[in-house]
Amino acid sequence: MIRDKGCGEIKESDRGLTLTLSGWIFRRRDHGGLIFVDLRDRSGIVQVVFSPDVSGEAHELAHDLRSEYVISVSGEIRKRPDGTENLSIPTGMVEMYVNKLEVLNESSPLPFGIEDAGDASEALRLKYRYLDLRRPEMQRNLIIRHKVTKVIRDYFDEKGFLEIETPVLTKSTPEGARDYLVPSRLNPGYFYALPQSPQLFKQILMVSGFEKYFQIVRCFRDEDLRADRQPEFTQVDLEMSFTDREDVIKVIEGMMKKLFKDVMDIEIITPFERLGFHESMERFGNDKPDLRFGLELKEMADLSQKGSFKVFLDALQSGGRIKAINGKGMANLSRREIDMLTEEAISFGAKGLAWIKVKNGFESPIAKFFPEEILKEMAQRLEAEEGDLMLFVADKEKVVFDVLSRMRLEFGKRLNLIGSGYKFAWITDFPLLEWNDEKGRFEAMHHPFTSPMDDDIEKMLTGDMNNKELLFSLRAKSYDIVLNGYEIGGGSIRIHRRDVQRKMFELLRISEEEAKVKFGFLLDALEYGAPPHGGIALGLDRLVMIMVGALSIRDVIAFPKTSKASCLMSGTPSTVEPKQLKELYIKTDLP
Protein backbone atom coordinates (compact mmCIF):
# COMPACT_ATOMS: atom_id res chain seq x y z
CA MET A 1 0.00 0.00 0.00
CA ILE A 2 1.16 3.56 -0.72
CA ARG A 3 -0.26 4.62 2.66
CA ASP A 4 -1.97 3.15 5.70
CA LYS A 5 -3.59 6.36 6.97
CA GLY A 6 -4.01 10.01 6.15
CA CYS A 7 -1.38 12.34 7.57
CA GLY A 8 -3.91 14.16 9.72
CA GLU A 9 -5.39 10.90 11.04
CA ILE A 10 -2.38 9.86 13.14
CA LYS A 11 -3.30 9.70 16.84
CA GLU A 12 -1.52 9.00 20.13
CA SER A 13 -3.09 5.54 20.05
CA ASP A 14 -0.86 4.81 17.00
CA ARG A 15 2.33 5.04 19.13
CA GLY A 16 4.58 2.07 18.52
CA LEU A 17 3.01 1.19 15.17
CA THR A 18 5.01 1.12 11.94
CA LEU A 19 2.92 2.85 9.27
CA THR A 20 3.26 4.12 5.72
CA LEU A 21 2.19 7.70 4.94
CA SER A 22 2.15 9.63 1.67
CA GLY A 23 1.72 13.29 0.79
CA TRP A 24 3.32 16.58 -0.14
CA ILE A 25 6.20 18.24 1.69
CA PHE A 26 4.75 21.36 3.30
CA ARG A 27 7.89 22.42 5.20
CA ARG A 28 11.41 21.02 5.56
CA ARG A 29 13.83 21.95 8.36
CA ASP A 30 17.41 20.66 8.45
CA HIS A 31 18.82 20.71 11.98
CA GLY A 32 22.04 19.00 11.06
CA GLY A 33 21.70 15.67 12.77
CA LEU A 34 17.92 15.51 12.28
CA ILE A 35 15.78 16.57 9.31
CA PHE A 36 12.14 17.45 10.03
CA VAL A 37 9.44 17.41 7.36
CA ASP A 38 5.82 18.49 7.74
CA LEU A 39 4.00 16.03 5.52
CA ARG A 40 0.59 17.15 4.23
CA ASP A 41 -2.36 15.51 2.54
CA ARG A 42 -6.08 16.36 2.49
CA SER A 43 -6.58 15.05 6.02
CA GLY A 44 -3.96 17.34 7.61
CA ILE A 45 -0.28 17.56 8.58
CA VAL A 46 2.04 15.31 10.56
CA GLN A 47 5.71 15.74 11.41
CA VAL A 48 8.11 13.09 10.13
CA VAL A 49 11.72 12.86 11.32
CA PHE A 50 14.75 11.62 9.39
CA SER A 51 17.46 10.41 11.79
CA PRO A 52 20.77 8.77 10.78
CA ASP A 53 20.34 6.51 13.83
CA VAL A 54 17.10 5.07 12.37
CA SER A 55 18.01 4.94 8.65
CA GLY A 56 21.17 6.40 7.21
CA GLU A 57 19.87 5.86 3.67
CA ALA A 58 16.57 7.70 4.26
CA HIS A 59 18.42 10.49 6.12
CA GLU A 60 20.82 10.93 3.20
CA LEU A 61 17.98 11.06 0.66
CA ALA A 62 16.12 13.60 2.81
CA HIS A 63 18.86 16.20 2.20
CA ASP A 64 17.57 16.55 -1.39
CA LEU A 65 13.89 16.95 -0.54
CA ARG A 66 12.20 20.24 -1.45
CA SER A 67 8.81 21.87 -0.97
CA GLU A 68 5.88 20.08 -2.64
CA TYR A 69 7.81 16.93 -3.50
CA VAL A 70 5.42 13.97 -3.30
CA ILE A 71 6.87 11.28 -1.04
CA SER A 72 5.97 8.05 0.70
CA VAL A 73 7.52 7.32 4.11
CA SER A 74 7.41 4.34 6.44
CA GLY A 75 8.42 4.35 10.06
CA GLU A 76 7.51 4.13 13.72
CA ILE A 77 5.01 6.51 15.32
CA ARG A 78 6.51 7.94 18.52
CA LYS A 79 5.45 10.42 21.17
CA ARG A 80 7.16 13.77 20.76
CA PRO A 81 9.68 14.67 23.46
CA ASP A 82 8.27 16.78 26.30
CA GLY A 83 8.23 20.46 25.41
CA THR A 84 8.22 19.89 21.63
CA GLU A 85 4.50 19.16 21.23
CA ASN A 86 2.52 21.24 18.72
CA LEU A 87 -0.97 21.77 20.12
CA SER A 88 -2.06 23.79 17.06
CA ILE A 89 -2.49 20.63 14.96
CA PRO A 90 -4.39 17.42 15.84
CA THR A 91 -1.28 15.27 15.27
CA GLY A 92 0.96 17.52 17.36
CA MET A 93 1.57 15.00 20.18
CA VAL A 94 3.26 12.43 17.92
CA GLU A 95 5.72 12.14 15.03
CA MET A 96 7.07 9.47 12.70
CA TYR A 97 10.70 8.34 12.70
CA VAL A 98 11.35 7.30 9.08
CA ASN A 99 13.11 4.08 8.16
CA LYS A 100 12.14 4.14 4.47
CA LEU A 101 11.67 7.02 2.00
CA GLU A 102 10.45 6.91 -1.58
CA VAL A 103 10.19 10.04 -3.74
CA LEU A 104 7.03 9.55 -5.80
CA ASN A 105 7.41 12.81 -7.72
CA GLU A 106 9.53 15.94 -7.68
CA SER A 107 8.25 19.50 -7.98
CA SER A 108 9.54 22.42 -10.00
CA PRO A 109 10.34 25.63 -8.07
CA LEU A 110 7.02 27.15 -6.97
CA PRO A 111 5.70 30.50 -8.28
CA PHE A 112 4.60 31.16 -4.69
CA GLY A 113 4.90 29.30 -1.42
CA ILE A 114 1.87 27.22 -0.46
CA GLU A 115 2.17 28.53 3.08
CA ASP A 116 2.37 32.14 1.87
CA ALA A 117 -0.06 31.84 -1.05
CA GLY A 118 -2.53 34.19 0.64
CA ASP A 119 0.00 37.00 0.08
CA ALA A 120 0.32 36.28 -3.65
CA SER A 121 -1.80 38.22 -6.14
CA GLU A 122 -5.14 36.69 -6.99
CA ALA A 123 -4.19 36.58 -10.68
CA LEU A 124 -1.12 34.49 -9.87
CA ARG A 125 -3.09 32.17 -7.60
CA LEU A 126 -5.76 31.68 -10.27
CA LYS A 127 -3.16 30.94 -12.94
CA TYR A 128 -1.68 28.22 -10.72
CA ARG A 129 -5.00 27.22 -9.21
CA TYR A 130 -3.86 23.61 -8.69
CA LEU A 131 -1.22 24.95 -6.27
CA ASP A 132 -3.58 27.44 -4.64
CA LEU A 133 -6.04 24.60 -3.97
CA ARG A 134 -3.37 22.76 -1.97
CA ARG A 135 -3.66 25.39 0.75
CA PRO A 136 -5.36 23.91 3.84
CA GLU A 137 -7.81 26.83 4.02
CA MET A 138 -8.88 26.33 0.39
CA GLN A 139 -9.31 22.61 0.93
CA ARG A 140 -11.33 23.37 4.07
CA ASN A 141 -13.61 25.67 2.05
CA LEU A 142 -14.34 23.02 -0.56
CA ILE A 143 -14.77 20.28 2.04
CA ILE A 144 -17.35 22.47 3.80
CA ARG A 145 -19.03 23.08 0.44
CA HIS A 146 -19.27 19.32 -0.07
CA LYS A 147 -20.79 18.88 3.40
CA VAL A 148 -23.28 21.68 2.71
CA THR A 149 -24.55 20.04 -0.49
CA LYS A 150 -24.81 16.65 1.24
CA VAL A 151 -26.86 18.06 4.13
CA ILE A 152 -29.12 19.92 1.69
CA ARG A 153 -29.77 16.78 -0.36
CA ASP A 154 -30.49 14.71 2.75
CA TYR A 155 -32.81 17.39 4.15
CA PHE A 156 -34.92 17.70 1.01
CA ASP A 157 -35.06 13.94 0.60
CA GLU A 158 -36.43 13.65 4.15
CA LYS A 159 -39.04 16.31 3.30
CA GLY A 160 -40.30 14.36 0.27
CA PHE A 161 -38.64 16.44 -2.47
CA LEU A 162 -37.42 14.81 -5.69
CA GLU A 163 -34.13 15.88 -7.27
CA ILE A 164 -34.87 16.29 -10.98
CA GLU A 165 -32.44 17.65 -13.57
CA THR A 166 -33.55 20.30 -16.04
CA PRO A 167 -31.98 21.08 -19.47
CA VAL A 168 -28.69 22.95 -19.83
CA LEU A 169 -29.32 23.65 -23.51
CA THR A 170 -32.54 25.61 -23.54
CA LYS A 171 -34.37 28.54 -25.15
CA SER A 172 -33.17 32.13 -24.92
CA THR A 173 -35.64 34.28 -22.97
CA PRO A 174 -33.80 37.60 -22.65
CA GLU A 175 -35.05 38.93 -19.32
CA GLY A 176 -32.56 40.44 -16.87
CA ALA A 177 -28.95 39.47 -17.57
CA ARG A 178 -27.63 38.48 -21.00
CA ASP A 179 -27.81 34.84 -22.02
CA TYR A 180 -24.82 32.74 -22.97
CA LEU A 181 -25.67 31.47 -26.45
CA VAL A 182 -24.68 28.12 -28.00
CA PRO A 183 -25.01 27.71 -31.79
CA SER A 184 -26.74 24.60 -33.07
CA ARG A 185 -24.78 22.75 -35.77
CA LEU A 186 -27.80 20.63 -36.70
CA ASN A 187 -30.07 23.68 -36.99
CA PRO A 188 -28.05 26.38 -38.79
CA GLY A 189 -28.83 29.91 -37.63
CA TYR A 190 -30.51 28.69 -34.45
CA PHE A 191 -29.14 28.95 -30.94
CA TYR A 192 -29.56 27.38 -27.53
CA ALA A 193 -29.11 29.45 -24.38
CA LEU A 194 -27.47 28.29 -21.18
CA PRO A 195 -30.06 28.67 -18.37
CA GLN A 196 -29.97 31.72 -16.09
CA SER A 197 -32.19 29.61 -13.81
CA PRO A 198 -34.51 26.60 -14.22
CA GLN A 199 -37.53 28.87 -13.62
CA LEU A 200 -39.77 27.79 -16.49
CA PHE A 201 -38.93 24.10 -16.20
CA LYS A 202 -39.53 23.87 -12.48
CA GLN A 203 -42.96 25.46 -12.94
CA ILE A 204 -43.70 22.88 -15.63
CA LEU A 205 -42.69 20.13 -13.19
CA MET A 206 -45.38 21.46 -10.85
CA VAL A 207 -47.93 21.37 -13.67
CA SER A 208 -46.71 17.80 -14.31
CA GLY A 209 -47.70 16.76 -10.79
CA PHE A 210 -44.33 16.18 -9.10
CA GLU A 211 -45.36 18.58 -6.30
CA LYS A 212 -41.96 18.88 -4.61
CA TYR A 213 -38.83 19.42 -6.72
CA PHE A 214 -35.29 20.50 -5.88
CA GLN A 215 -32.01 20.66 -7.71
CA ILE A 216 -28.46 21.80 -7.00
CA VAL A 217 -28.00 23.27 -10.44
CA ARG A 218 -25.45 25.16 -12.51
CA CYS A 219 -26.70 28.49 -13.90
CA PHE A 220 -25.14 31.02 -16.29
CA ARG A 221 -25.40 34.78 -16.67
CA ASP A 222 -23.36 36.98 -18.97
CA GLU A 223 -23.12 40.00 -16.66
CA ASP A 224 -20.55 42.32 -15.16
CA LEU A 225 -18.83 40.56 -12.28
CA ARG A 226 -17.80 41.43 -8.73
CA ALA A 227 -16.62 39.61 -5.60
CA ASP A 228 -19.93 37.81 -5.02
CA ARG A 229 -20.81 37.06 -8.67
CA GLN A 230 -19.58 34.58 -11.28
CA PRO A 231 -20.66 33.91 -14.89
CA GLU A 232 -21.37 30.29 -13.91
CA PHE A 233 -22.74 29.71 -10.45
CA THR A 234 -24.67 27.15 -8.45
CA GLN A 235 -28.23 27.46 -7.16
CA VAL A 236 -30.18 25.42 -4.67
CA ASP A 237 -33.45 25.49 -6.57
CA LEU A 238 -36.81 24.26 -5.30
CA GLU A 239 -40.51 24.42 -6.10
CA MET A 240 -43.62 23.20 -4.30
CA SER A 241 -47.25 22.72 -5.33
CA PHE A 242 -50.34 23.57 -3.25
CA THR A 243 -48.21 25.95 -1.24
CA ASP A 244 -48.05 29.54 -0.09
CA ARG A 245 -45.35 31.89 1.15
CA GLU A 246 -45.34 30.60 4.73
CA ASP A 247 -44.74 27.01 3.58
CA VAL A 248 -41.67 27.99 1.54
CA ILE A 249 -40.28 30.11 4.37
CA LYS A 250 -40.76 27.28 6.89
CA VAL A 251 -38.94 24.77 4.64
CA ILE A 252 -35.97 27.11 4.10
CA GLU A 253 -35.66 28.08 7.77
CA GLY A 254 -35.61 24.38 8.66
CA MET A 255 -32.91 23.77 6.06
CA MET A 256 -30.74 26.61 7.37
CA LYS A 257 -31.13 25.44 10.95
CA LYS A 258 -30.04 21.90 10.04
CA LEU A 259 -27.27 23.13 7.75
CA PHE A 260 -25.56 25.34 10.31
CA LYS A 261 -25.93 22.75 13.06
CA ASP A 262 -24.65 19.79 11.05
CA VAL A 263 -21.84 21.59 9.21
CA MET A 264 -20.77 24.39 11.58
CA ASP A 265 -22.17 23.13 14.91
CA ILE A 266 -23.96 26.48 15.29
CA GLU A 267 -27.51 26.83 16.58
CA ILE A 268 -29.55 29.15 14.37
CA ILE A 269 -32.62 30.71 16.01
CA THR A 270 -35.85 30.52 14.01
CA PRO A 271 -38.12 32.08 12.90
CA PHE A 272 -35.96 34.68 11.18
CA GLU A 273 -36.66 38.37 11.51
CA ARG A 274 -38.92 39.82 8.79
CA LEU A 275 -38.83 43.26 7.23
CA GLY A 276 -41.12 44.71 4.60
CA PHE A 277 -39.36 46.03 1.51
CA HIS A 278 -40.25 49.67 2.22
CA GLU A 279 -39.23 49.39 5.89
CA SER A 280 -35.87 47.91 4.89
CA MET A 281 -35.25 50.70 2.38
CA GLU A 282 -36.18 53.45 4.87
CA ARG A 283 -34.08 52.05 7.72
CA PHE A 284 -31.07 50.69 5.84
CA GLY A 285 -31.21 52.12 2.31
CA ASN A 286 -31.31 48.70 0.61
CA ASP A 287 -33.26 45.45 0.56
CA LYS A 288 -30.39 43.28 1.85
CA PRO A 289 -29.54 44.87 5.20
CA ASP A 290 -26.73 43.70 7.44
CA LEU A 291 -28.57 43.50 10.77
CA ARG A 292 -25.47 42.77 12.85
CA PHE A 293 -25.18 46.48 13.66
CA GLY A 294 -27.39 49.55 13.91
CA LEU A 295 -26.43 52.89 12.37
CA GLU A 296 -29.82 53.23 10.68
CA LEU A 297 -30.88 55.93 8.23
CA LYS A 298 -33.13 58.59 9.77
CA GLU A 299 -35.68 60.84 8.07
CA MET A 300 -34.69 64.52 8.13
CA ALA A 301 -37.11 66.15 5.68
CA ASP A 302 -39.46 67.50 8.36
CA LEU A 303 -36.64 69.07 10.38
CA SER A 304 -34.84 70.35 7.28
CA GLN A 305 -37.96 72.32 6.29
CA LYS A 306 -37.58 74.32 9.49
CA GLY A 307 -34.24 75.71 8.37
CA SER A 308 -33.08 77.91 5.49
CA PHE A 309 -30.38 75.74 3.91
CA LYS A 310 -31.13 76.10 0.19
CA VAL A 311 -29.67 72.75 -0.91
CA PHE A 312 -32.08 70.92 1.41
CA LEU A 313 -35.07 73.06 0.48
CA ASP A 314 -34.41 72.68 -3.25
CA ALA A 315 -34.16 68.90 -2.91
CA LEU A 316 -37.53 68.76 -1.16
CA GLN A 317 -39.09 71.16 -3.65
CA SER A 318 -38.12 68.84 -6.52
CA GLY A 319 -39.65 65.80 -4.79
CA GLY A 320 -36.40 64.48 -3.33
CA ARG A 321 -35.58 63.05 0.07
CA ILE A 322 -33.28 63.99 2.95
CA LYS A 323 -31.92 61.33 5.26
CA ALA A 324 -28.93 61.10 7.58
CA ILE A 325 -26.75 58.67 9.52
CA ASN A 326 -24.61 59.08 12.62
CA GLY A 327 -20.86 58.67 12.28
CA LYS A 328 -20.16 57.55 15.84
CA GLY A 329 -17.05 59.17 17.34
CA MET A 330 -16.06 60.79 14.04
CA ALA A 331 -16.31 64.46 15.09
CA ASN A 332 -12.52 64.52 15.40
CA LEU A 333 -12.10 64.10 11.63
CA SER A 334 -10.19 66.90 9.96
CA ARG A 335 -11.73 69.00 7.20
CA ARG A 336 -9.54 67.16 4.70
CA GLU A 337 -10.80 63.79 5.94
CA ILE A 338 -14.41 65.01 5.67
CA ASP A 339 -13.69 66.21 2.13
CA MET A 340 -12.50 62.68 1.34
CA LEU A 341 -15.78 61.34 2.74
CA THR A 342 -17.62 63.77 0.49
CA GLU A 343 -15.66 62.57 -2.55
CA GLU A 344 -16.58 59.01 -1.57
CA ALA A 345 -20.28 59.96 -1.40
CA ILE A 346 -20.00 61.63 -4.82
CA SER A 347 -18.43 58.44 -6.22
CA PHE A 348 -21.53 56.60 -4.94
CA GLY A 349 -23.78 59.00 -6.91
CA ALA A 350 -24.48 61.93 -4.54
CA LYS A 351 -24.08 65.58 -5.54
CA GLY A 352 -22.44 66.26 -2.19
CA LEU A 353 -22.46 65.48 1.52
CA ALA A 354 -23.62 67.80 4.31
CA TRP A 355 -22.25 67.33 7.80
CA ILE A 356 -22.60 68.64 11.35
CA LYS A 357 -20.17 67.83 14.15
CA VAL A 358 -21.55 67.42 17.67
CA LYS A 359 -18.59 69.05 19.35
CA ASN A 360 -19.02 71.66 22.07
CA GLY A 361 -22.37 72.39 20.52
CA PHE A 362 -22.73 72.11 16.74
CA GLU A 363 -19.90 72.77 14.32
CA SER A 364 -20.58 72.95 10.58
CA PRO A 365 -20.75 75.38 7.65
CA ILE A 366 -24.51 74.68 7.50
CA ALA A 367 -25.26 74.98 11.25
CA LYS A 368 -26.03 78.70 10.85
CA PHE A 369 -29.04 77.85 8.65
CA PHE A 370 -30.88 76.06 11.48
CA PRO A 371 -32.20 77.20 14.84
CA GLU A 372 -30.42 75.68 17.85
CA GLU A 373 -33.50 73.69 18.89
CA ILE A 374 -33.73 72.09 15.40
CA LEU A 375 -30.07 71.07 15.54
CA LYS A 376 -30.76 69.47 18.93
CA GLU A 377 -33.76 67.60 17.47
CA MET A 378 -31.59 66.32 14.61
CA ALA A 379 -29.00 65.06 17.08
CA GLN A 380 -31.69 63.46 19.24
CA ARG A 381 -33.22 61.65 16.27
CA LEU A 382 -29.83 60.31 15.21
CA GLU A 383 -28.91 59.49 18.82
CA ALA A 384 -25.84 61.64 18.24
CA GLU A 385 -23.74 62.40 21.31
CA GLU A 386 -20.70 64.56 21.97
CA GLY A 387 -17.98 63.50 19.52
CA ASP A 388 -20.33 62.21 16.79
CA LEU A 389 -20.65 63.36 13.17
CA MET A 390 -24.08 63.76 11.54
CA LEU A 391 -24.00 63.14 7.78
CA PHE A 392 -26.84 64.19 5.43
CA VAL A 393 -27.68 63.38 1.81
CA ALA A 394 -30.39 65.34 -0.06
CA ASP A 395 -31.28 64.06 -3.52
CA LYS A 396 -33.63 61.77 -5.42
CA GLU A 397 -34.85 58.91 -3.26
CA LYS A 398 -32.84 56.26 -5.11
CA VAL A 399 -29.63 58.27 -4.76
CA VAL A 400 -30.22 58.97 -1.06
CA PHE A 401 -30.84 55.30 -0.30
CA ASP A 402 -27.91 54.07 -2.38
CA VAL A 403 -25.35 56.52 -1.03
CA LEU A 404 -26.28 56.24 2.64
CA SER A 405 -26.59 52.45 2.55
CA ARG A 406 -23.05 52.24 1.18
CA MET A 407 -21.76 54.74 3.72
CA ARG A 408 -23.50 52.82 6.52
CA LEU A 409 -21.63 49.65 5.56
CA GLU A 410 -18.37 51.54 5.17
CA PHE A 411 -18.73 53.12 8.62
CA GLY A 412 -19.72 49.76 10.08
CA LYS A 413 -16.35 48.39 8.94
CA ARG A 414 -14.27 51.44 9.86
CA LEU A 415 -15.78 51.76 13.33
CA ASN A 416 -15.75 48.01 14.03
CA LEU A 417 -19.50 48.04 14.62
CA ILE A 418 -20.24 44.83 12.69
CA GLY A 419 -20.65 41.96 15.10
CA SER A 420 -19.68 38.37 14.49
CA GLY A 421 -22.07 35.51 13.87
CA TYR A 422 -24.88 35.02 11.38
CA LYS A 423 -27.95 37.24 11.15
CA PHE A 424 -30.76 36.09 8.86
CA ALA A 425 -33.79 38.09 7.72
CA TRP A 426 -36.65 37.75 5.28
CA ILE A 427 -37.55 40.74 3.10
CA THR A 428 -41.20 40.60 2.05
CA ASP A 429 -43.98 42.72 0.51
CA PHE A 430 -41.98 43.81 -2.52
CA PRO A 431 -43.69 45.94 -5.15
CA LEU A 432 -44.95 43.82 -8.03
CA LEU A 433 -43.68 46.35 -10.60
CA GLU A 434 -40.94 48.94 -10.89
CA TRP A 435 -40.66 51.82 -13.34
CA ASN A 436 -37.88 51.91 -15.94
CA ASP A 437 -37.20 55.57 -16.85
CA GLU A 438 -35.03 54.61 -19.82
CA LYS A 439 -37.67 52.37 -21.40
CA GLY A 440 -40.62 54.43 -20.21
CA ARG A 441 -42.58 51.43 -18.93
CA PHE A 442 -43.09 49.17 -15.95
CA GLU A 443 -41.00 46.04 -15.44
CA ALA A 444 -41.44 43.08 -13.10
CA MET A 445 -39.39 43.64 -9.96
CA HIS A 446 -38.63 39.91 -9.83
CA HIS A 447 -39.92 38.13 -12.95
CA PRO A 448 -43.16 38.14 -14.96
CA PHE A 449 -44.48 34.95 -13.32
CA THR A 450 -44.56 36.39 -9.78
CA SER A 451 -48.07 36.41 -8.31
CA PRO A 452 -49.61 39.56 -6.85
CA MET A 453 -50.80 39.43 -3.26
CA ASP A 454 -54.31 37.95 -3.02
CA ASP A 455 -55.75 41.33 -1.96
CA ASP A 456 -54.28 42.99 -5.07
CA ILE A 457 -55.38 40.52 -7.77
CA GLU A 458 -58.82 42.06 -8.33
CA LYS A 459 -57.34 45.57 -8.32
CA MET A 460 -54.80 44.41 -10.92
CA LEU A 461 -57.43 42.78 -13.17
CA THR A 462 -59.95 45.63 -13.11
CA GLY A 463 -57.88 48.74 -12.39
CA ASP A 464 -56.84 51.49 -14.80
CA MET A 465 -53.61 50.40 -16.51
CA ASN A 466 -52.59 54.05 -16.94
CA ASN A 467 -52.93 54.82 -13.22
CA LYS A 468 -49.29 54.82 -12.11
CA GLU A 469 -50.18 55.25 -8.45
CA LEU A 470 -52.36 52.13 -8.59
CA LEU A 471 -49.69 50.10 -10.37
CA PHE A 472 -47.02 51.20 -7.88
CA SER A 473 -49.28 50.00 -5.05
CA LEU A 474 -49.49 46.41 -6.32
CA ARG A 475 -47.56 44.06 -4.04
CA ALA A 476 -45.85 40.81 -4.98
CA LYS A 477 -45.99 37.45 -3.23
CA SER A 478 -42.21 37.42 -3.29
CA TYR A 479 -39.58 37.08 -0.62
CA ASP A 480 -35.81 37.36 -0.34
CA ILE A 481 -33.65 35.75 2.32
CA VAL A 482 -30.74 37.88 3.53
CA LEU A 483 -27.68 36.86 5.56
CA ASN A 484 -25.13 39.32 6.94
CA GLY A 485 -25.89 41.92 4.29
CA TYR A 486 -25.99 39.53 1.32
CA GLU A 487 -29.06 38.40 -0.54
CA ILE A 488 -28.59 34.63 -0.54
CA GLY A 489 -31.89 33.71 -2.13
CA GLY A 490 -35.11 34.93 -3.63
CA GLY A 491 -38.39 33.42 -4.61
CA SER A 492 -42.11 33.90 -5.00
CA ILE A 493 -45.48 32.29 -5.29
CA ARG A 494 -46.12 31.99 -9.02
CA ILE A 495 -49.06 33.01 -11.14
CA HIS A 496 -51.07 29.86 -11.90
CA ARG A 497 -54.16 31.55 -13.37
CA ARG A 498 -54.10 32.25 -17.11
CA ASP A 499 -56.12 35.48 -16.79
CA VAL A 500 -53.73 36.89 -14.19
CA GLN A 501 -50.72 35.92 -16.31
CA ARG A 502 -52.25 37.57 -19.37
CA LYS A 503 -52.87 40.77 -17.40
CA MET A 504 -49.31 40.74 -16.09
CA PHE A 505 -47.99 40.64 -19.65
CA GLU A 506 -50.26 43.56 -20.57
CA LEU A 507 -48.86 45.64 -17.69
CA LEU A 508 -45.33 44.83 -18.86
CA ARG A 509 -46.29 45.66 -22.48
CA ILE A 510 -45.45 42.15 -23.61
CA SER A 511 -47.72 41.30 -26.54
CA GLU A 512 -49.40 37.90 -26.85
CA GLU A 513 -47.17 37.15 -29.82
CA GLU A 514 -44.00 38.09 -27.91
CA ALA A 515 -45.13 36.10 -24.87
CA LYS A 516 -45.79 33.08 -27.07
CA VAL A 517 -42.32 33.30 -28.61
CA LYS A 518 -40.54 33.71 -25.25
CA PHE A 519 -42.61 31.60 -22.89
CA GLY A 520 -45.01 29.65 -25.11
CA PHE A 521 -44.40 26.19 -23.68
CA LEU A 522 -45.04 27.39 -20.10
CA LEU A 523 -48.16 29.34 -21.10
CA ASP A 524 -49.48 26.27 -22.89
CA ALA A 525 -48.83 24.17 -19.79
CA LEU A 526 -50.75 26.64 -17.60
CA GLU A 527 -53.85 25.89 -19.69
CA TYR A 528 -53.99 22.32 -18.39
CA GLY A 529 -54.80 22.52 -14.70
CA ALA A 530 -51.81 24.24 -13.08
CA PRO A 531 -51.81 23.99 -9.27
CA PRO A 532 -50.93 26.93 -7.01
CA HIS A 533 -47.16 26.72 -6.68
CA GLY A 534 -44.08 28.62 -5.60
CA GLY A 535 -40.48 28.24 -4.64
CA ILE A 536 -37.12 29.86 -4.16
CA ALA A 537 -33.56 29.77 -5.50
CA LEU A 538 -30.60 30.07 -3.12
CA GLY A 539 -27.09 31.05 -4.16
CA LEU A 540 -24.96 28.12 -2.96
CA ASP A 541 -21.62 29.82 -3.66
CA ARG A 542 -22.60 32.95 -1.77
CA LEU A 543 -24.00 30.98 1.17
CA VAL A 544 -20.82 28.90 1.54
CA MET A 545 -18.71 32.06 1.19
CA ILE A 546 -20.46 33.56 4.21
CA MET A 547 -20.31 30.33 6.19
CA VAL A 548 -16.52 29.99 5.83
CA GLY A 549 -15.83 33.72 6.20
CA ALA A 550 -14.32 34.17 2.72
CA LEU A 551 -14.24 37.60 1.08
CA SER A 552 -15.03 36.34 -2.43
CA ILE A 553 -17.04 33.47 -3.88
CA ARG A 554 -13.95 32.65 -5.93
CA ASP A 555 -12.54 31.18 -2.71
CA VAL A 556 -15.32 28.57 -2.50
CA ILE A 557 -15.36 27.56 -6.19
CA ALA A 558 -12.71 25.11 -7.36
CA PHE A 559 -12.08 26.73 -10.76
CA PRO A 560 -13.59 30.23 -10.85
CA LYS A 561 -13.41 32.95 -13.48
CA THR A 562 -11.83 36.39 -13.09
CA SER A 563 -13.77 39.66 -13.16
CA LYS A 564 -13.40 39.50 -16.96
CA ALA A 565 -15.01 36.04 -17.01
CA SER A 566 -11.77 34.30 -17.97
CA CYS A 567 -9.96 31.29 -16.51
CA LEU A 568 -6.26 32.12 -16.22
CA MET A 569 -5.32 28.50 -15.60
CA SER A 570 -6.91 26.97 -18.71
CA GLY A 571 -6.85 30.07 -20.94
CA THR A 572 -10.63 30.19 -21.30
CA PRO A 573 -12.22 31.68 -23.37
CA SER A 574 -10.06 30.96 -26.39
CA THR A 575 -10.17 31.14 -30.16
CA VAL A 576 -11.28 28.10 -32.14
CA GLU A 577 -10.30 26.63 -35.48
CA PRO A 578 -11.92 28.23 -38.57
CA LYS A 579 -13.24 24.76 -39.44
CA GLN A 580 -15.29 24.71 -36.21
CA LEU A 581 -16.84 28.09 -37.01
CA LYS A 582 -17.63 26.98 -40.55
CA GLU A 583 -19.45 23.89 -39.23
CA LEU A 584 -21.61 26.22 -37.14
CA TYR A 585 -22.22 28.67 -40.02
CA ILE A 586 -20.57 31.47 -38.02
CA LYS A 587 -18.37 34.29 -39.28
CA THR A 588 -16.68 36.85 -37.06
CA ASP A 589 -15.81 40.46 -37.88
CA LEU A 590 -12.66 40.22 -35.77
CA PRO A 591 -9.29 40.24 -37.56
General description of the model:
This protein has 591 residues and is of the alpha+beta class. It has helices at residues 56-62, 122-127, 129-132, 136-158, 199-207, 245-264, 277-284, 301-304, 310-317, 335-347, 372-382, 397-414, 454-462, 468-473, 498-507, 512-526, 540-548, 578-583; strands spanning 18-30, 35-41, 44-50, 70-79, 94-105, 162-163, 180-183, 191-194, 212-220, 232-241, 273-276, 298-299, 321-327, 354-358, 362-363, 389-395, 424-428, 433-436, 441-444, 478-483, 486-493, 533-539. Helix 4 (136-158) packs across helix 6. The model has no long low-confidence stretch (mean pLDDT 93).
Compute the number of helices: 18
Instruction: Please state the average pLDDT score.
Output: 93
Radius of gyration, taken over Cα atoms and rounded to an integer in Å:
30 Å
| Morphology call | globular
Please give the largest β-sheet. 8 strands, mixed
- Count of β-strands: 22
Strand order of the largest sheet: 6-9-10-22-21-20-17-11
pLDDT < 50 runs, ≥5 residues: none
Helix/strand-derived class? Answer: alpha+beta
The share of residues in helices is 25-40%
Q: Strand share of the residues?
A: 15-25%
* Gap between N and C termini: 56 Å
